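Please go through the protein record below and see whether the fold suits the sequence. Record follows.
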Amino acid sequence: MTPILSFSRLIASLKRISPRRGIEYCFTIIGFVITLSIILMAIFAPYIAPYDPTKRVGGLLEGPNSHFIMGTDSLGRDIFSRIIYGSRIVLRVTLLSIVISFFCGVPLGLIAGYVGGKLDSVLSLVMDAMYAFPGLILAIAIAAALGPSEITVSLAIAVIYIPTYFRMIRGHVLSLKESLFIEAARAIGARDRTIIFKYIFPNVILSIPIILSLNAADAVLTEAALSFLGLGPVTAPTPDWGMDLRMGHAYLAAKIWWPSTFPGLMIVLLTLGFSLLGEGISEILNPRLRR
């Protein structure tokens, strides 16, 4: 196939995409690029950061210039280097909170929805109580009780979203367990474990990317909020976006905007990337959303 013919077919396929679908794919690509860029920035932080993020390398509160593209903070540390290294903390907490909430909420939702009875009633009551409690306040209480660390902050964030996984998965299981293909599986002698994980779970997995996107985006905001309140996963001088935002917030009244503006922009950017990527993946995987 010649390059000209391949390019012609590509143009023809793009013309068949509706404007609405084209915009959705564009947003998905933007979210993927933002998320992947920040992940790569975190992985290769030692090779990208021009300075040590914990040491003084310039004057106090220098504005953005040719040596420090994002300026320096109140201790003379390079803000750009702290932004790069701070992404590691945010991504680790986000990933760990997603893993904890997924492996707790999904199995509980599958079991409660399929078994029913008293077990379903007890689990639903506990999850409803957790879901009704304000998420940020619950995270603050857990982080304050357990102390600052990456694991405790991740656990505090995960607890917020375990009921969300549980409720959505349980609702799908309740609607599926009386279906004909489940009755057929029971008729041929399939065990309950086989029915749950072989027949029911593949049909409810399509709804999980939506929760994952909300979980990841909210984990970034919650981690930043906890760090802003002094309950974050790390302590000074370790770089963290939320902690740097709190330190720079005190200088806004003096029109020194760069110490808080750049960490805040990175929090918004990563949240936006996770949200766009999650919504795009859910539309691609879910045929009902595609229709």
In short: Residues 79-115 form the longest helix (37 residues). The chain is about 75% helix and 0% strand.
